[in-house]
Automatic annotation (TrEMBL):
Statement: the UniProt record of this protein carries the keyword Hydrolase: yes
Family, similarity comment: Belongs to the 4-hydroxybenzoyl-CoA thioesterase family.
Protein name: Acyl-CoA thioesterase
GO molecular function: fatty acyl-CoA hydrolase activity
InterPro entries per UniProt: 4-hydroxybenzoyl-CoA_TE, HotDog_dom_sf, YbgC/YbaW
Gene3D superfamilies per the UniProt record, alphabetical: Hotdog Thioesterase (3.10.129.10)
Keyword Hydrolase: yes
Classification via SUPFAM superfamilies: Thioesterase/thiol ester dehydrase-isomerase
UniProt KW keywords: Hydrolase
Amino acid sequence: MGFNEISFRVRYGETDQMGVVYYGNYAQYLEMGRVEWLRSLGISYKSMEENGIILPVISLQVKYLKSAVYDDVITVATFLKKTPSVKIEFDYIIYNEAREILVEANTVLAFMDRKTKRPVKCPDYILEKIAK
């Protein structure tokens, strides 16, 4: 299935008083991974929303293994777990420059109609891009 990586440097404002990345920031890192995964297929969140589809997170699981600290360059590897239906599921590995695994995570998102807020199946144009 699809796979993508994005790397970036941890900013000071993302850390707590102990100098490590605040645990809540990892959810944003996962979102960055998803957005770039979609972009690598030629799909943007903005275009999906303009086409009436929203993708709320309905499940988030994070296993913290090691801390990232200020100025670390970290990489979010994003993996599509299976072909999407009404839901789309991703696995993630976040690691540092030494390739030490910091976080293992999983998210499940639901395709929803923007107006009715009701679940819908994954749009065909997304399925076609995944199949390539």
